């Protein structure tokens, strides 16, 4: 039971980290787009 829970938690952390990277990438792209438009 404990090992299954740990594996699930680790998988969830990996997914969360992946989502975070995507959000960070989109935010950077959005900021660059705004800067490009303003100039």
Description:
The protein has 39 residues and is mainly α. It has one domain (1-39). Helices cover 95% and strands 0% of the residues. The chain is built from 1 helix and no strands. The longest helix is centred in the middle third of the chain and has 37 residues, at 2-38. The chain is rod-shaped, with a radius of gyration of 17 Å. The termini are far apart.
Quick structural overview:
This protein is mostly helical and about 40 residues long. The chain contains one helix and no strands.
List the main descriptive attributes of the protein structure presented here.
transmembrane; 39 residues; transmembrane helix; single chain; membrane; 0% strand; mainly alpha
List the helices and strands and how they pair.
Layout: H1 2-38
Helix content: over 70%
Strand content: under 5%
Report the principal-axis shape.
rod-shaped
Mean pLDDT comes to 87
Strand tally? 0
Helix-and-strand structural type: mainly alpha
Largest sheet: none
Low-confidence stretches: none
**How many domain modules?**
1
The number of helical elements comes to 1
Distance between the termini: 57 Å
Order of helices and strands: H
Radius of gyration: 17 Å
């Amino acid at each position: 039971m404990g090992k299954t829970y740990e594996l699930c938690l680790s998988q969830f952390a990996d997914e969360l980290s992946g989502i975070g990277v995507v959000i960070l990438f989109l935010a950077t792209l959005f900021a660059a787009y705004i800067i490009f438009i303003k100039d």
